[in-house]
Every structure is written in structure tokens, then in C-alpha cells.
Amino acid sequence: MSTTTSTQIRLRERPVGEPTADTFETTTVDLPEPADGEVLLQIDHLSLDPYMRGRLSEAESYAEPLAVGDVVMGGTVGTVLASRHPDLAEGDQVLSYSGWQTHAVEPGRAVRKLDTGANPASTALGVLGMPGFTAYAGLLQIGRPQPGETVVVAAAMGPVGSAVGQIAKLKGARAVGIAGGPDKARALTEEMGFDVGLDHRADDFREQLASAVPDGIDVYFENVAGPVLDAVRRHLNLYARVPVCGLVANYNATAAPEGPDTLPGFLGQILTKSLTVRGFIQTEFVKDHYADFLAEMGQWVAQGKVRYREDVVEGLENAPEAFAGMLRGANTGKLLVKVS
Amino acid sequence: MSTTTSTQIRLRERPVGEPTADTFETTTVDLPEPADGEVLLQIDHLSLDPYMRGRLSEAESYAEPLAVGDVVMGGTVGTVLASRHPDLAEGDQVLSYSGWQTHAVEPGRAVRKLDTGANPASTALGVLGMPGFTAYAGLLQIGRPQPGETVVVAAAMGPVGSAVGQIAKLKGARAVGIAGGPDKARALTEEMGFDVGLDHRADDFREQLASAVPDGIDVYFENVAGPVLDAVRRHLNLYARVPVCGLVANYNATAAPEGPDTLPGFLGQILTKSLTVRGFIQTEFVKDHYADFLAEMGQWVAQGKVRYREDVVEGLENAPEAFAGMLRGANTGKLLVKVS
């Protein structure tokens, strides 16, 4: 077997605020041949996700930070080029966590062979992967929407948000999505089947929101924080549930924003409305709910009951710019890098 | 039966910020004779509780505001002077919600006859009443302390806080109490059996707190908000629970305090630590848990396993000043007014 070369993007220095050109560097390495039990992979798609911003910092997060000099982490789907693992064969499509690189050698136990009969392999990074499961588990285990209730989700054209709204609809709730810009807002109703799609950049966003939730809000699936939360929280009903899944508006912040201090007001609301505000990471629910998710959501996607959009950037070299753009809300749908 | 006169304290004008001498006025009325099904009560003790501050304002709260001109509301224990209800007899000790007055005529169904065999009647306003049930339900249903976990409660010498710590101990958890002033802090360990009692006014409070929770905090029972919350929340463990029961530090506030805005930081913690922050009012749990509470807590109190302290102010005319003092943290234990 000839030597395989992997082009890799590594963390050069920790970003302060928004990631810049200095944050990353590109290296090329010769990969070893796979040892017994290992496979050689060609990476086809790399997933870019907001959680990665936290891993680039030393600040305390729910996961260990990436070390400076490491290949940037990330979920990937790829093709087995060579296998020394009994359950995997050349040509298999697999899910792995190989990160920002073109090729990788992985232990066979660290990759999952994908069933690409019903749905394309790339869905394992989005609607049928971590973002989809985040939506499924957070909405159903924490949000617990009841038929007739109103569910609001922000970043609603993102891979988590669009799944949240569609699952809410399948469970009999009303789905109101909030996104950045009129095109995304329109896609929420036209493409994703939400009852209402709102553009939080509209001048009259607060009025539009008030009209969209005449019975108040029972579940607010929190993806963004910032001004959207400030508008939404005024409509939360008694006993409303707020799964806190992400806070992308705050991820690049380097210090607490200027006042006034809105925490006392929010706590007052938590008290007077008996709210449940619950942070979560999807890993908490994997053991009890992942198999159900793959079965139920896989069927919904195959039947077209849950739709998804992919935003595919060509070439690993464009991953850093695409990643920074995602944190600004520049993309629509699941952001993937087509690596090879 | 001769006419009975009731001296009453009414809401004269809504307070802006701290209640003042102008907030209340005293009136005297002749009570009608009890009609069929009613009882005439002499009020023995009036309960003063932080929630009343919210009811004096028009601002949205979990209960309807008091109307200007109404007798101020409040839980009371009293003695039946005359009864036209079959289940109540002259001399019975009863719990009612007669408010700030010396006598009242009440429908028999609005009063509960007290069993004063094991515990004194006044406990029905404190450790065996609303504050005790608030502690019991909030800690056990939301906080769910496990043996060996660390429970922190502020306003810990108050009637809710002292019960929270003692119930936590009975459930096998470690109890750390926070109170205002060295005397209260000492009483937490010496009188209430907490593992640690801290004075949040001490210069080195943050250091003392850090030493007191070497394994972090699993349950923070929130009674006060403000700087205490700011210190405590830095120690919350993964999956910690924060029952939000009261926010006395904020009750007199008339506007959001100056920045920086600490809400984004708190939300970030909720996310990275998978926290559950849950507001509640004890009424939510009455149906399912009140009978258990009366049985279990009544036994604990009778056996001396849960202790309580009463701070008794003599004379209804002193209720307004005692109420304002309570909001400043001036009292220790359950604040009662001895009415007659």
C-alpha cells in the first residue's frame, strides 16, 4: 500500500473573540498504515458546529478544550480505503470523529458503519446525527411539548432549530421559528412546515412575535440568547420549559456586556411563572434515547416528514472562513465542508 | 351576642421601593354576626412573609395584587369565639387567611381546625405551614438531594431556609447555610444542625464559601438572589438543581440594576453545567404532597428532628415596621405578630 498523505487544519493559537486567520494553520502529514483493528479513511464531509467555538477556548466548557497544535475536532463521514477491522470493508461509508483533515487512520471501534439505504451518508452529521439528536432529546425530554402548546425556537433554519420545529409539529404543537433575515424566515414556513417564521432583524420583530404567540409560549428552545431571548421571554407562560441548548450570540464574547443587569428580571420571571430553565448537552441522553432517535427520526426523514437543508462548502481550506461565518449566522441549514 | 370590633390594617397606597409609613392605614370596623356556616375568630397570631411584598404591587406576580383599601392579606391562627359551622366549636384553634386584623368572620370551609396535641398552633404558620411546606416541596421535588450531596441555602435562619437545611440533613445530604450576620451564622450550626453556617456580610465570605463546599454544590435553594447568588453559582456542579423560591434581595427594586449584564454569564453556566433552574410556588405541590408533609414534618418537629425559631412581635400596630424590617433581613426565624 502506498503512503497516504493527510492535509490537516490545526489550532495555531486560541482566538480571543471571533476566530481570525491566525487561529488556524494547515499542515500535511504522512499517515501510518492501519494497524490491526484500524481502518484508513478518506474524509468526504466534515461537520461544522457552534459547540466547536467553546472547544477552541481554555474557558471552562462542557468538554475539554482542544490543545494548541491539535487537529481541530469535528464529526466526519468518510469512505473506508483500507480495513484491518473484521466488521469494516473497503468502500463502506462510516461516521467518525476525525476532525478537520482529508484522511485519517482510526480504530475500527471509533467509527460507525452507516446504513445509507434510506438516507444519504451526510445526514449522519446533521438531521440524523448530533444536531438532530440534540433537537429530539432536548425538545422531547426537557421541552415536553403537549398537543396544542406553542413551541418557539430561534436559529430555526439551523440544523437543530429546524428539527425542533418539525418534531414539535409532529407532536401536535404549534411551531414558531425565529431566524436571521427574510429568506430564512420564509423558508421556515415554505420549506420546513413551521406555523410562523419570523425575522429577528425586522424593525417590528417584537410586534410580530407578540402576534405570532397569542396564547403565549410553552416551550422556548434556546439556541441563541441575546436580544431574541429578551423578546421571547416576556411571552413565556406559567410552567413554560426552556431547554438551553446553545447561546451562539454569546460565544465570541470576551466579557460581560454592559448593563443594565437583566439577570434579576429573568430570575423574577422564573419565579413568578414557575419556569424550568434547563441546560443540556445531548450526550446526557444518548444511552436512553439514541436508538429511539435513529429509528423514529430515520423514518421521519425517509418519509419526508422531517426535512433538512445542507449548506455545503467545497474544500477543507475553506473550513475556517465557513466556521467564522456560521458563528455570525451567515449559513442556512447544516453546514458541511465537502472535503474530497 | 354583643358586637365585635376588628382593628384592621389596610393598604393605603402602593409602595414604590421599600414600604413606608404611608403604605398602610389602620381602620376599625364592627363585624357582622356570623351567618349560617360561618365562624367568628379572634386572631392570635399573624404571619409576615416575603411574598406579601409582591402582592402590594401592581407588577405581575404569581398572585393577584391586593387592591388599595383592602385589608392586607396574611395567614393567621386564631380561636373560635362563636361558631355556626357544625365542625367547629368555640375555643377551637384554627388556621385561616384572615390577614392583618384582630378579629374576623370567616366561612367555616375557609378555616382549618388545628391539631395542637403534638405541636403549638403557631407552627401552622411556619415550620408546619406554608414556609415549611415551601421548603419540603421545593427541596424534595425540585432539589432532589441525594445522600452525600451538598445543599446550600441562603436566608438560612428564615423559616424556609432553616427547614431546607434540616430536611437536607435528614435525607443524608450536607447542609451549608448562608445568613446575614455572625449571630445567625452561628445559630445555623449550633441550633439548626447545619454542617456550616456562613455570614454573607463577612469580608471574606467568598473565600469562606469556597472552603465550605470543597465538592461543589449540587442543590442551591434560591431565596435571595443578588450578591449571594453571584458567589454561590460559581460552585454549582454538573447537573445541579436550583429551586427558585424567592428573590428577597430584588423585591423592593424599582428598576433593573446597573450593569454589567450578568444574565449571559448565568445562561452560559446553565448550559455548560447542565443546570436545572426551576421557579415554583408551593401551591403547585399541595395536592400531591401536602398530606405527606403534615405527617412527616409534623413527626420530625414533634421529635425535635426539625427545629424552628419564631420571632414574635407584640401588637398588630407593629406589623408594618416588622414587615419592612423582614425585607431588610432584620428578623431571625419565622416572623409572627402576636395580635391578641
UniProtKB/TrEMBL annotation, chains A, B:
SMART domains reported for this sequence: PKS_ER (SM00829)
Q: Where is this region: Disordered?
A: 1-22
Q: Does the keyword Cell inner membrane apply?
A: no
**Name listed for the protein in its UniProt record:** NADP-dependent oxidoreductase
Endpoints of the signal sequence: none
Identify a single GO molecular function assigned to this protein.
Answer: oxidoreductase activity, acting on the CH-CH group of donors, NAD or NADP as acceptor
Stretches assigned to the Enoyl reductase (ER) domain: 22-337
Which keywords appear in this protein's UniProt record, sorted alphabetically?
Oxidoreductase
Q: Name the domain of life this protein comes from.
A: Bacteria
